[in-house]
Design brief:
Length: 56
């Protein structure tokens, strides 16, 4: 019984939760940036690809 009480009192799991929350925030930010600038980036890479000379 004491092992269960000690398990719930430990705070080591909080670091994992904080890293998970940080990862989720970064993922949302990346998705927002891709949604916002996605079409502009597609056009940029498309025009850069067509400007390259063809290689034999």
């Amino acid at each position: 019984m004491q092992h269960i009480v000690n398990f719930f009192r430990e705070e080591d799991g909080l670091a994992v939760t904080e890293y998970g929350l940080l990862l989720a925030i970064v993922a949302v930010a990346v998705v927002a940036v891709i949604k916002t600038f996605g079409t502009k980036l597609t056009g940029l890479f498309s025009s850069a690809t067509t400007a390259l000379p063809a290689t034999p």
